[in-house]
Amino acid sequence: MRLDKFLKVSRVIKRRSVAKEVADKGRVSINGRPAKSGSDVVEGDEITIAFGNKDLTIRVDQIMDTTKKDQAQEMFTVVDETFKD
């Protein structure tokens, strides 16, 4: 699954256009390597996202094409959440 679609379906980022923009600006990495919006995401990958005031690292547990709100949390596990000063 594409990175931008995974971020949207899992509800880590609410809109796919925003997920694409964040990834293409170099603020997302998969397994420690910079990733673009079209990068493939597979189960077991660790995704790190640099938001404005925090860095969020998640592990991909499941890949689903569509989800309901309560199912979205099953797609990933938060590994680390670091807030910046």
Structural commentary:
The protein is built from three helices and five strands. It has one domain (3-83): RNA-binding S4 domain (Structural Genomics Hypothetical 15.5 Kd Protein In mrcA-pckA Intergenic Region, Chain A), CATH 3.10.290. The protein is globular. The longest helix is centred in the first third of the chain and has 9 residues, at 16-24. The chain has helices at 3-9, 16-24, 69-72, and strands at residues 28-30, 33-34, 46-50, 54-60, 76-83.
Tell me the CATH topology: Structural Genomics Hypothetical 15.5 Kd Protein In mrcA-pckA Intergenic Region, Chain A
Average pLDDT reading: 94
What is the spatial order of strands in the main beta sheet? Answer: 2-1-3-4-5
Assigned CATH architecture: Roll
Query: If you compute it from the alpha carbons, what radius of gyration comes out, rounded to the nearest whole angstrom?
Result: 12 Å
Overall number of domains: 1
Bin the strand percentage.
25-35%
- H/E element string? HHEEEEHE
CATH class: Alpha Beta
Number of strands: 5
Low-confidence segments, given as residue ranges, are none
Note the overall shape. Answer: globular
Helix content, binned percent = 10-25%
Give the end-to-end Cα distance, rounded to a whole number of Å. 34 Å
Structural class: alpha+beta
The tally of helices reads: 3
Please, what is the CATH homologous superfamily? RNA-binding S4 domain
Question: What's the main sheet like?
Answer: 5 strands, antiparallel
Oligomer: single chain
Domain RNA-binding S4: 1-63
Family: Belongs to the RqcP family.
Protein name: RQC P-site tRNA stabilizing factor
Subunit structure: Associates with stalled 50S ribosomal subunits. Binds to RqcH, 23S rRNA and the P-site tRNA. Does not require RqcH for association with 50S subunits.
